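Design a sequence for this backbone.
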């Protein structure tokens, strides 16, 4: 299992999980929502877990949509909390 945050990606991962974690972190950073910078990403094979907080349900759904659109992602466990 590999862990990362969206604000700190891997430079050049040597394993599939490292590369996938880097792709997820990059996609979240590139989405244009500052709230995504603090999300934690865990990768276990092709399975992704997201953890963190966002201020509304739209941003939670948007983060999930971004991750599910990445080739190689088989499943997503979203533990993102909506905190106002």
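Sequence:
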């Amino acid at each position: 299992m590999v862990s990362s945050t969206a604000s700190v990606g891997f430079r050049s991962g040597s394993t599939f999980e490292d590369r996938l974690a880097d792709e997820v972190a990059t996609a979240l950073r590139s989405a244009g929502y500052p709230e995504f910078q603090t999300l934690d990403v865990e990768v276990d094979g092709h399975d992704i877990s997201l953890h963190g907080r966002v201020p509304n349900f739209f941003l939670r759904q948007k983060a999930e949509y971004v991750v599910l659109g990445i080739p190689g992602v088989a499943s997503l466990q979203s533990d993102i909390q909506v905190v106002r």
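DSSP finds two helices and four strands in the chain.
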